[in-house]
Amino acid sequence: MLLQIPQVLTAEQVAHCRERLEQADWADGRITAGHQSAKAKDNAQLPEDSPVARELGTLVLEALARNSTFFSAALPKRIYPPLFNRYAGGQSFGYHIDNAIRYDRSSGRAEPIRTDLSATLFLSAPEEYDGGELVIEDTFGAQSVKLAAGDLVLYPGTSLHKVLPVTRGTRLASFFWIQSMLREDSQRRLMFELDVSIRRLTQTVPEHPSLVQLTGVYHNLLRRWAEP
Ligand code: NI
User: Fold this and answer.
1) What distance in Å separates the CA atoms of residue 75 and residue 66, rounded to the nearest whole number?
2) Which three-class secondary structure state does DSSP give residue 129?
């Protein structure tokens, strides 16, 4: 499931992130690439232990914690501390698949996180740059994604994906991975659709007795499948 979630960050939060990113010390993006993807990767990135990355990463995580669509779609167990990247001057990232396991070292220990889902949070407005589309190979073919600043795209970590060359302007984004309580994309999709349906019914027919039953089905499926 490929899902776009609008306005994860407010305009003020986007402006704050951009102001901090402008003053930050950027490094070559290959610092977090695996051996194979390093050959395809050409961008700049904030080092994981950089104070700006930590500060803005916390801001992003707090925004995600308040976002019920994100929670419902991802059913997150662990979230990798958000990273930040920058593409300009023709930079791109060719087709690759992200490493299955990433180690979160922010606590001082290496905590493994299985990358069930990948997320990109756009921090530049689409009119500020040419190119820079995130192209994701989905079950229905290649999807090209270029969102408003503050919007997020969530997609399965199993997908082949690339970033097209940025031929004008600068593309800033945050990206991170999520280990879900549900490993399988098909199960996450079912649970998301069920949750969306229950919420809609709660709005339109709040007194309907079947709502209690449906909510029970949701939780009993989650109990059966989840690895909390
Ligand atoms: Ni990637």
Assistant:
1) 13
2) coil
Residue 210: burial class (beta carbons within 10 Å; 0-12, 13-18, 19+): exposed
Residue 24 alpha carbon to ligand 1 centre in Å: 22
Q: Is the separation of the CB atoms in 8 and 68 below 8 Å?
A: no
**What digits encode the pLDDT tens for the residues 154-166?**
999 999 999 999 9
Query: Whole-prediction pTM value?
Result: 0.95
Distance 208 CA to ligand 1 centre (A): 44
* Chunked mean pLDDT (size 10), the chain, 228 residues: 97 98 92 79 93 97 98 98 97 95 92 97 98 93 97 97 98 98 97 97 95 97 96
Residue 40 makes CB contacts below 8 A (sequence gap 6+) with 93, 94, 95, 96, 162
Calculate how far, in angstroms, residue 155's C-alpha sits from the geometric centre of ligand 1: 11
* Ligand 1 mean position, distance from CA 29 (Å): 11
- The rounded Å distance from CA 137 to ligand 1 centre is 12
Enumerate the H helices of the chain as residue ranges: 11-23, 51-65, 68-74, 185-204, 210-225
Beta-bridge partner residues of 119: 154, 176
